[in-house]
Design goal:
The complex is a heterodimer of chains A (302) and B (335). In chain A, helix 2 crosses helix 13, helix 3 packs antiparallel against helix 11 and helix 11 packs antiparallel against helix 13. Chain A has 302 residues and is mainly α. Chain A folds into two domains: 58 residues, no CATH class; 237 residues, Orthogonal Bundle (MetI-like fold), CATH 1.10.3720.10. In chain A, strands 1-2 form a two-stranded antiparallel sheet. Helix content of chain A is 80%, strand content 4%. Chain B is mainly α and 335 residues long. The longest helix of chain B is centred in the first third of the chain and has 38 residues. The chains are: A mainly alpha (302), B mainly alpha (335).
Chain lengths: 302, 335
C-alpha cells in the first residue's frame, strides 16, 4: 500500500515536471517579453521620458502627473474615452444580437447554407491588420469619404431618422439607433467568429429536445426561450468577452490612434503609457461588468 | 412582397387547403414566408460583406478615365490590367511577396509549436501554480499589445532598432535590425494573438478522451512519445486551423511587423500597402510631373493593392475554408 502511494506521488511529481516543460516556452516568453515591458510601461507612466541623440533616454519621476494631465488638461481624451465606451457597449450588444440571429438563421436547413456560413466568416480574414481602415488612412480620402457617405449611403438612415424624430420618439435613443444603422457594416464585419461559436452551440442541441417541448405544448417562441436560450447562454460570456476584446484592440478606434500618435509622433512615451493603462483598466472593467451581468442572467435560467 | 407571395399560395393551394380546414395553407405560407425572409436577410448581409470586395474588383480593372465617367458604375468600359502592373510595382511585389510568405510561414510555425506545447501542458497536466499561469495566458489575450508597445519599442530601439523614426515619419526607409526579436517572440508564444491559440488548443485537447493517453501509458510509452504519436494526430484539425489563422493574421499585420521586423533591406506586403498612397504620390510626381494624384486614382490604386495583398489569402480561404470554420466550432463548445 505504502509503496504504491509513493510511486503514485513520484508519478505526480514527474507529471508536474513534464507539465512545466510543456509550458516552458510560454513561461519564458511571458516573463521575458510580457512581464518586463509591462512593469516598465507601468513605471514609465509615472515618468516623463525624453529622448535625445546625445544622452539617450532620460527619465524623471513625475508621479501621477501623466494621469492627471490625461483626465483634466488634455482637451480630447475624456470625451474620447466616454465615446469609445458608449460605442463599445452599443456595438457589442448589437454584435451579440446580430451574431445570434444569423446563427439561428444558419442553423436552419436550406440550400446554400455552407456558402452563407463561409461568407459570414470571411470578415475574420478581410478585416485584419492593414486592411482595417486602409482606405480611411489617407487624409485626402477622408474628406472624400465623408462626402460620399453624406450624399449616398446615409439617405435611408437619414430619412428614417427624420421620420421618427418628427413623430416624437426620444432623441438620445434615436441617435443610438441611427448610429447602429450606419455602423451595420462594422458590426457585421466584427461578428464572424461569434456567429460560428453560436452556430456550433446551436448544433449541439438535439432535435429531440424541441420535439419534447412541442409535445408539451410549447410554441416556437416558448421553446426558443426555454430550450435554445438556456443552452446557448454559457456561450454568451465567451462571445461577449471576445467581442469586447476585439473592439478594444482594433487599431482604428480613436484612443488607439491617440496612443499611437502620442508615442510615435509627439514622442511622449510616459504620457502614452499612462493613456494605454487607463484604457486597459477601462477594458478590464467593461469585461468584468459584462460577464457579471451575463452570469447573473445565466443563473436565472439554470 | 410578402403579401404577393401569400396571394400566390392562396391560388394554388386553395382546394386542398379547404379540405384540411386551412391548416395546409397556413403551414405552407408560413414556410415560404420564413424562407423568403431568411433569404432576403442572408442575401442582404452577405452582400454587405461581399460588396466592398466586388467593388474593388470592378474598380481595379478600370482605366483612370472610367472613374470620372458617371455612366460607368460597375462594369468598366476600358478594361485594363495596367493597375495591377502598377500596384505590383508600388508594392515591390516580388520581394515583398517572398518576404511576407517566408516570415508568415516561419512565425506561424514557431507560434503554433509553442502554443501547442503550452495548450497540451495546460490541458493534461497538474502542476503547482497552474491556475495562476493560465490566468497569465488570459492576461496575454486581454492586454492589447499596444499597451506595452511603448516600452517594448524603447527596449528594441535601445538595442537595435535605431532609425525607426525615419520609417514612421515617412522618410527614406533606413532601418537596421534583424528578424531575431520577432522570431524569439514567436517561439515563446508571444506573437500576434497567441494567447487565443493557446486557449483554443487547450480546449481541443480537453475534448479528447483521456483514455487514449492512458492506453499509451499502460503500453509503456513516454510522455513525449504519447504526445507526439497519440495526441498530435488527433489534434491535427485545430493545429491546422490555428496555423492558418496565424498565417493569415501575420500576413496582414502591420503592428508587429513595423515594431520588430527589419523593413530596410526587406519589404513586406502589409507595410508596402499601408504606404501605398505615399509611394503612388512619389511615383506620379516623378513620372507625370503632377505633385498630387487625384483622390479617385489613389483610391483605385489602393483597392488594387488590397486585392493583390488579399488575393492569396482569399484563395487559401476558398481551399481551406473547412479548416478555418470547423475548429472554431469545435473549441467554442466548451467553456
Amino acid at each position: 500500500m505504502k509503496t504504491g502511494r509513493t510511486s503514485r506521488r513520484t508519478i505526480r511529481q514527474r507529471r508536474a515536471i513534464s507539465g512545466y516543460l510543456f509550458i516552458l516556452p510560454f513561461l519564458i516568453g511571458f516573463l521575458a517579453f510580457m512581464v518586463r515591458p509591462m512593469i516598465q510601461s507601468i513605471i514609465m507612466s509615472f515618468q516623463s521620458v525624453s529622448l535625445s541623440a546625445q544622452t539617450g533616454i532620460t527619465k524623471t519621476w513625475v508621479g501621477l502627473a501623466n494621469y492627471v494631465y490625461a483626465f483634466t488638461i488634455d482637451p480630447e481624451f475624456n470625451q474620447m474615452l466616454v465615446d469609445e465606451v458608449i460605442r463599445m457597449v452599443t456595438h457589442s450588444l448589437a454584435t451579440m444580437v446580430l451574431a445570434f440571429m444569423i446563427a439561428l438563421l444558419l442553423n436552419q436547413q436550406f440550400k446554400g447554407r455552407a456558402l452563407a456560413r463561409a461568407i459570414f466568416f470571411l470578415p475574420v480574414i478581410l478585416s485584419s491588420g492593414v486592411l482595417v481602415g486602409i482606405e480611411t488612412d489617407n487624409s485626402l480620402i477622408i474628406g472624400m469619404k465623408e462626402l460620399i457617405t453624406q450624399s449616398n449611403t446615409m439617405n435611408f438612415g437619414n430619412a428614417l431618422f427624420g421620420l421618427l424624430s418628427a413623430s416624437g420618439v426620444g432623441t438620445p435613443a434615436l441617435e443610438v439607433v441611427n448610429d447602429l444603422i450606419t455602423a451595420v457594416y462594422d458590426i457585421v464585419m466584427a461578428s464572424g467568429i461569434q456567429i460560428v461559436v453560436f452556430l456550433s452551440g446551436l448544433q449541439t442541441i438535439p432535435r429531440s429536445m424541441y420535439e419534447a417541448a412541442e409535445m408539451e405544448g410549447s410554441s416556437a417562441w416558448e421553446s426558443f426561450w426555454m430550450v435554445t436560450f438556456p443552452i446557448i447562454s454559457p456561450l454568451l460570456i465567451v462571445n461577449m468577452i471576445y467581442t469586447i476584446i476585439d473592439f478594444f484592440m482594433k487599431t482604428d478606434n480613436l484612443i488607439m490612434e491617440k496612443i499611437h500618435e502620442e508615442m510615435f509622433i509627439n514622442l511622449k512615451y510616459g504620457f502614452s503609457s499612462a493613456l494605454s493603462w487607463i484604457y486597459f483598466a477601462v477594458a478590464i472593467a467593461m469585461i468584468g461588468i459584462s460577464s457579471l451581468i451575463i452570469r447573473k442572467g445565466v443563473r436565472h435560467y439554470e | 412582397m410578402s403579401n404577393r407571395d401569400k396571394a400566390l399560395q392562396l391560388d394554388s393551394f386553395w382546394v386542398r387547403n379547404r379540405k384540411s380546414g386551412g391548416l395546409l395553407l397556413r403551414q405552407e405560407a408560413r414556410k415560404r414566408f420564413v424562407a423568403l425572409l431568411r433569404f432576403l436577410m442572408l442575401f442582404g448581409l452577405c452582400f454587405l460583406i461581399l460588396q466592398p470586395v466586388l467593388d474593388k474588383i470592378s474598380v481595379s480593372f478600370m482605366m483612370e478615365k472610367d472613374l470620372y465617367d458617371t455612366t460607368i458604375i460597375v462594369v468598366p468600359r476600358n478594361l485594363t490590367t495596367e493597375n495591377y502592373t502598377l500596384a505590383a510595382y508600388l508594392l515591390n511585389l516580388n520581394t515583398s511577396l517572398l518576404n511576407t510568405t517566408v516570415i508568415s510561414l516561419v512565425t506561424a510555425l514557431l507560434q503554433i509549436i509553442a502554443c501547442t506545447l503550452a495548450g497540451y501542458g495546460f490541458a493534461r497536466f497538474e502542476f503547482p501554480l497552474k491556475r495562476f499561469w493560465f490566468a497569465c495566458v488570459v492576461l496575454v489575450i486581454v492586454i492589447p499589445p499596444q499597451t506595452i508597445s511603448s516600452s517594448l519599442y524603447l527596449h528594441f530601439r535601445y538595442f537595435d532598432v535605431l532609425g525607426i523614426f525615419t520609417r514612421l515619419t515617412g522618410g527614406p526607409i533606413n532601418l537596421k535590425g534583424s528578424p531575431l526579436p520577432y522570431l524569439m517572440l514567436s517561439a515563446t508564444a508571444m506573437g500576434l494573438k497567441n494567447g487565443l491559440y493557446i486557449f483554443m488548443i487547450r480546449q481541443y485537447f480537453k475534448s479528447i478522451p483521456y483514455s487514449l493517453e492512458e492506453a499509451a501509458y499502460v503500453d509503456g510509452a513516454s510522455t513525449l512519445g504519447t504526445f507526439l504519436k497519440v495526441l498530435l494526430p488527433q489534434a491535427v484539425p485545430i493545429l491546422v486551423s490555428c496555423f492558418l489563422f496565424a498565417f493569415v493574421w501575420q500576413w496582414t499585420d502591420v503592428f508587429y511587423t513595423r515594431l520588430f521586423l527589419p523593413t530596410a533591406n526587406t519589404q513586406y506586403l502589409s507595410i508596402r500597402l499601408s504606404g501605398m498612397a505615399e509611394s503612388l504620390r512619389t511615383y506620379v510626381s516623378t513620372r507625370r510631373g503632377i505633385t498630387t494624384p487625384p483622390v479617385g486614382y489613389i483610391m483605385q490604386m489602393i483597392s488594387t493593392g488590397v486585392l493583390v495583398v488579399v488575393g492569396p489569402l482569399l484563395v487559401l480561404y476558398l481551399v481551406a475554408q473547412r479548416w478555418f470554420i470547423e475548429s472554431i466550432s469545435a473549441t467554442g463548445l466548451k467553456d
